[in-house]
């Protein structure tokens, strides 16, 4: 009947076409967030997903690096790393030449008023070089080493973040899509566990691939530069120092020497796998709930940004708090300078040692900066990644 009416009334065809064109134009102008059912059908390739993730990783690494430095310094101090003025070791070596050769300024900073004189040496009390908390770490680093040292290890963080997150988030998307498709058809009751499994597998793959850079970043952040006026070693020099360390505690062959570059990877996986499992199993339902509250499939790009950041912040905070003891163990294993001991130690032995030395407080050393770093970091990474994915998907749709 409709066809006959169009034949009898030709104006209906042109009007119908005009209305349809207007509706299509309005549809392309309106952003819509992909629903759960359409996640498997987006048109992004691995390269575009990696690009989205890398951009998120760069932004996050720069913003939260000071908290990462504070966390690492607190954990390294609890493990026995002594922080002091760079000249203190030089002064002790010069003491054999007599008091006339000991003239030095060992104040923590030129503005410190707590320094006293020991002979001809201006000396600060030990408390000036001991960290008491997150803000105290930041204050003393700025005062003693300079403001830019809060971003110590950022180059390693960027070198690590781009490939790691560039592997992690795209692989998570791919694994999640595969597992959701499989469980929907074959095991519907297992679908809620898909984010947990996909996140764990993706994080394990990313961690094993880029671990030596993570080792370099931890050591760069944990240790002070002892030579005044000399540029601190970068990623390559730090890793070369790990492999080429001299002394009796060096591994007996070159193969074990390079194996040291993966020292503590078990602790890293023991931390990152449950972190990812907790994070994604919390983030996915939270994100979908928030997006449904702000408009569902018709949510605006700002709503998507806010929903993803909020869900990422909550998930990252919970996951970081739960896995803090494993993070302490990871740091302790990565800063171990005795290669033979480092190769023999296990994560379980390290946790027992931490408990024996510091009890429950020792296991949660650096909890404040770790939680303060992980919440915003996950929120930034996930929201930036999803917004870029959203924009690229929209470009594919309209082209």
Automatic annotation (TrEMBL):
The keyword Ligase does not apply. GO terms for biological process: mitochondrial transmembrane transport. It is a multi-pass membrane protein. Solcar repeats lie at residues 44-178, 190-289, 303-391. Coiled coil: none annotated. One of its GO terms (cellular component) is mitochondrial inner membrane. The keyword Isomerase does not apply. It is found in: Mitochondrion inner membrane. It comes from the Eukaryota. InterPro entries: MCP_dom_sf (IPR023395), MCP_transmembrane (IPR018108), Mtm1-like (IPR045315). Keywords: Membrane, Mitochondrion, Mitochondrion inner membrane, Repeat, Transmembrane, Transmembrane helix, Transport. Its main location: mitochondrion. Belongs to the mitochondrial carrier (TC 2.A.29) family. PANTHER family: FI19922P1-RELATED. This is Mitochondrial carrier protein. It comes from Trifolium subterraneum (Subterranean clover).
């Amino acid at each position: 009947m409709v066809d006959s009416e169009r034949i009898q009334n030709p104006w209906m065809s042109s009007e119908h076409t005009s209305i349809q064109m207007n509706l299509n134009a309005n549809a392309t102008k309106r952003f819509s967030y992909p629903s759960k059912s359409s996640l498997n059908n987006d048109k992004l390739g691995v390269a575009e997903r990696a690009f989205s993730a890398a951009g998120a990783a760069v932004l996050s690494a720069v913003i939260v690096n000071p908290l990462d430095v504070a966390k690492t310094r607190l954990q390294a101090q609890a493990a026995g790393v002594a922080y002091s003025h760079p000249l203190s070791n030089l002064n002790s070596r010069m003491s054999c030449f007599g008091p006339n050769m000991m003239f030095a300024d060992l104040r923590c900073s030129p503005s410190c008023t707590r320094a006293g004189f020991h002979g001809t040496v201006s000396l600060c009390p030990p408390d000036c070089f001991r960290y008491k908390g997150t803000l105290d770490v930041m204050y003393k680093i700025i005062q003693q080493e300079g403001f830019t040292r809060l971003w110590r290890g950022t180059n390693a963080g960027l070198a690590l973040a781009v490939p790691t997150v560039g592997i992690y988030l795209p692989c998570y998307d791919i694994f999640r899509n595969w597992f959701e498709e499989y469980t929907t058809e074959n095991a519907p009751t297992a679908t809620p566990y898909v984010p947990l499994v996909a996140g764990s597998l993706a994080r394990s793959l990313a961690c094993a691939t880029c671990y030596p850079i993570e080792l370099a970043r931890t050591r760069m952040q944990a240790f002070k530069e002892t030579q005044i006026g000399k540029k601190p070693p970068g990623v390559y020099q730090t890793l070369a120092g790990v492999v080429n360390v001299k002394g009796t505690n060096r591994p007996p062959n070159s193969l074990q020497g390079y194996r040291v570059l993966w020292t503590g990877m078990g602790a890293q996986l023991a931390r990152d796998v449950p972190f990812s499992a907790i994070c994604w199993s919390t983030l996915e339902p939270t994100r979908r709930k928030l997006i449904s509250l702000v408009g569902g499939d018709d949510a605006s790009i700002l709503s998507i940004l806010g929903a993803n950041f909020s869900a990422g912040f909550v998930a990252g905070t919970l996951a970081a708090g739960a896995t803090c003891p494993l993070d302490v163990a990871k740091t302790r294993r990565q800063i171990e300078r005795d290669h033979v001991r480092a190769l023999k130690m296990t994560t379980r032995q390290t946790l027992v040692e931490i408990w024996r030395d510091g009890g429950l407080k020792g296991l949660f050393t650096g909890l404040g900066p770790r939680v303060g770093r992980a919440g915003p970091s996950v929120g930034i990474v996930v929201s930036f990644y999803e917004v870029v994915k959203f924009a690229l998907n929209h470009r594919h749709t309209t082209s």
